[in-house]
Amino acid sequence: MKTMSGALQTDAGSMTLRDETFAPSAPSQARNAGVATVYQELSLAPHLTVAESLFLGREPTRFGWLDTSTIEAEGTIALARLDRTDIPLDARILDLSIADRQIVEIARALHGRADLLILDEPTSSLTGEDASQLFDVLRRLRDEGLAILYISHFLEEIIDLTDRYTVLRDGEVTGHGATSDIDATRLATLMVGRPLQKRTARDHTISDDALLHVDAIHGSPLPIDASIELHRGEILGIGGLVGSGRSELVRAIFGLDPVTSGSVRILDVSGPSTPAACLDAGLGLLSEDRSREGLALNLSVADNLVMSRWPTRRRGWLDLLERDRSTNHWIDELGIRTPSTGMHVGSLSGGNQQKVALARLLHHDVDVLLLDEPTRGIDIASKETIYACIEKLAEAGKAILVTSSHLPELLSVCDRIAMMHRGKLGPFQPATQRDEHEMILEATLGDQADDRSAEAP
Length: 457
Known about the structure:
The chain is α/β, with parallel strands linked by helices.
C-alpha cells in the first residue's frame, strides 16, 4: 500500500498504471497520477475544519488570498459525491464522529482526479450501520468507474463487497481469484497458513478470589451504573455497539476518566484514582487506540516494552542489558516480528504493534488486565496469538476483562459476558448460555431486549 502511494520505493519488480510504468517517488506523485490513499489511522488534523481538511496542501487561491467561495463550492461537491452533504463544512474534525471523519478522509482523497482508491481497514472503528452506509458509497463509486483496493481483516466484508481477492501472508501472495469462488473459511486458512482450530469451552476452575470489584460506578458522561466482580483465572467479556460506553468504563476503572460515584477496588487497594496508582495496585490497561495512547510510536520496541517498569541498577542507573533481555524474551514469547529491538515501534505492522503493547502489561506483571478491543485492526494470525496468550494468562491465575464489538470473539474467549447499552452494563452470564442473536438485541435495545426475545417466534 505504501509502495503504491509513493511513501516507499520498490527494491525490485515493477508496477503499471493505465498500462504505463508506475514508480512514484513521493506521495504527491502518486496523487497527481490519480492514486488516492486512505490509511487505517486517519491523517486528519483535529483542530481544522472539514473544508480546511479537504483542501489541506491544495488550497485554491485568488490573487494570493484563499478562495473561500471555491472551497465552499468544491467542498460541497466532494461531500455530495459521497451522499454526505449533511456534514457541515465549518465543523471541526475534533467534533465529528469516527464515521464522519472516515467520510471526510475519503472525500479528501478523491478530491481532484482519482482513478484508484486504496482503503486500509476503513471499518475497524465503525458501527455496523456506518459500515453498511460506507459499503453503499463504495459500490456506487465502483459503478461510476472508480477502481477500489479494499484492505480488511474482516472476512465477511471481503465476501460481501469485493469482486476479486488477493491474500498476503508474510509479504507473499498465498491466493487470489474471484471472490464468488471462495468462502470465509478458505480465506482464513490462506491468511493463517493452516486450518483454523475450532475453539471449545475453556475447561478450568475459576477461583473464588475476586481481584477486581467495581460497584455501581458512574462516569462523566459514561458509564452509567456499571458493576463488575472479576475473579482470579477468569476472563470476562463486555460487548456493545461503538459508543455504548465500553471504553469509557475501562478508562474510568483505570483512572483515566473521572468517576462521579461508585467505587473501584483492586485486590486490597480501594479507590486508586490515577493510572500510576492502578499499576502499583496490580491493574493494567491495553488501550483500544494503540497509536495515540497505547504506544510511543517514535520510540524503539525495547523502550516501549519496558516503559512502565524500567529495569534499574543501584543508584538509579538504567539497566540496558536487562531491558534487551526482557524485550527478547517477550519477542520470542509473543512471536513479535521486528528486525531488531531498536526498531521504532511505529514501523511495525498493526498486529506486531498490538503484541508490543500487550507485552508491556506482561512485563509489568499485573494481576488484572483490562483489554479494550485487543484485536482491533490486526491480522488473523496475530489474533490467534493474542487469544492463546489471554487463555494462558487466565490459566496462570490472572484476571482478565475483554471488551470487543466482535461478538464471536467474546463467545470464543470469555467465561462470562455482559452487554453495554447507552452506558449501562447488563448482567454477566456464562458464555455457554449466550448466542449472538440475544447479544445483538441487548446491545441495540438494552433493557427491552428481554421483551423482544419473548416476542420472537
